[in-house]
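Pasting two entries for a bug report.
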Amino acid sequence: MASEKNKIIVNGYAFNNANDAALAQEETKKVEYLRAHLDTTNPDKILNVLAKAIEDNIFKTPIGMDFLREIQMFLINQCDYTEEEVPSIPVSAQYNRSLRSEFADTKAKVAPEPKKKEKVSAMFVSVILNILLVAAVIAMFVITLKSENPNILNYETAINNKYSYWAEQLTEQENTLREKERELKLREENIKERESELAIDSN
């Protein structure tokens, strides 16, 4: 297993070789581009982007998979799609096989145990990994929701806040204009009254 010094870190993920790290960096650029151009006001378009990305196998590293999962949750939680309506993300890795290879040396030194126990331990490790993955996804969404910068989840709120600010400014300007109109009317009425008084006095 490669040491930490030999690993290449991309967005918090440690890759064992330069090829995988380069692929992850490419996917980071793709994610940034999609974030900048996704129209969150058009859920059907976002659904089509997700389906196309899965169909064409655009993302292969955890960075791309995290983004696809983010879009999934946005469509389900924010756009009222059901889980059945949103395409699932295929997983190409074979986790059980990788677990067997990682623990091969340990098993060789330890006396063989009954097959039932091996299955239970593998299932236990798989459950732990799934829990950690879910926790990581939840943490990512919490960070994203609390972020002040507009993103795919809080973009609508940021836009609404801008429009509210503009509406308040327009309302203030309208009130100012109305006050000026009232002042002008009062001046006109005063001028007319004076003209009337002068006409009466001249008679």
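Entry 2 (this is the one that rendered wrong in the viewer):
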Amino acid sequence: MRAIANRAKILYALIGVFLLGLCILGYRFFANAESWSGQKYNRHLYENGTLVSGGRILDSAGVELARNEDGSRRFNDDRTIRMSTLHTIGDLEGYISTGVHSLYKSELTGYSFVDGLYSTVENGSGNDITLTVNSDLCATAYRALNGRKGTVGVYNYKTGEVICSTSSPSFDTRNRPTVEEIEESDSYEGVYIDRFVSGSYVPGSIFKIVTAAAAIENIPDIYSQTFTCKGEYNIGEGVVKCSGVHGEINFEKALSHSCNCAFAQIAEQLGNEKLQQEAITLGFNDSSASGGNYLNFAGSKIDLTNAKKLDLGWAGIGQYTTKVNPCRFLTLVGAIANGGASPKPYVVSKISTASGRSVYRAKTKLMDPYMSGETALKLKKMLRFDVEDVYGDWSFPNLEMCGKTGTAEVGGDKQPHAWFVGFSQREDFPFAVVVIIENGGSGSGNAIPVANTVLQEALKLYTD
């Protein structure tokens, strides 16, 4: 009897181990099946490591950007559209990790937990994904960059729809450069990086928006103060130089004329802690930048913990160790336009089966408020004054534009980065724009024309 009891215990133990293993296998299958089905060894989806199966990708106007044809993946027939939308769509090998072909692989291929890839294999196609971007507008932006490295992004600060996102350099998927060409040619530097969502740059004078917000929040008499600009400001261990000699200047004109001396003095009044805290309030050092079905963009970084007085002065004008992401900063100016909070940006509008059944439809979702409505209104007025006082409304016909340029020094003998961020305050045209041209020189001379070219095209497409 004792031997039978011992055998029973061993049997029960084996059954327990088997059931535990079955549970672990089931959990791993549930957690990883989607990832396993999308591996490059799956011949239903890949051929020689290249994706060959999946539904269509369409732009907001229904233009096909990618599709299946004769057992392979085909991109749009227009070369400029192919190059201008490459980083949003993604390549077929998965090197551009932020593209739709990578991030929405399971949705695109039609995978479901119940029947796996059965419908894809049976029908020869997966789900269709419709984007928010307009391919003609992306092509306009790409042409406006004219071969220069950088990015252009435009989004609706009421809904979060990104209507334009292009990154340069790019390449034509029908004439893909070799690995050697990419590695050896400077013209392909960072070609797999979507600079809009993954880029990180010295902000230069666009950061003065952050310093101005900190001043509004922390310096009660900021609007009654005047600042003296003699072309440089002596602060602590050295001087902060200005691009001009502005003489006596008030807060509002200090921003419109982008006076480094004035903003170094403002940063000095604020101190390290208050300026950094305001930057954090406005989205800096946030590691949870969106995600899910919304754009997962890189964070903007600031650290003034050990900054000396001179460092602080340079930080106040965007020239210390601070780095910003274009998409992140676009949401910041969107919040100014939208009364303090902005929606999460997204590029996927809807997903549907080949038969037309809706699988997913995007919804507007606000990010945490960046600032009070009062501060947003004050900044909005200042950014509008920037255009009226310096850039001129003629630079942005019919747009009622608010904005700020930046000319970000990057060291050595390299040309500075050219920036423009801004938004239209027209009720029927709620769009914000960001432009950065790497080593592009003057923000007003080079980034503004690109921004205006893109927005004028958007005006034709999105207003009656």
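Dev reply: Rendering is fixed now. As a check, the viewer should reflect this: The chain is about 40% helix and 20% strand.
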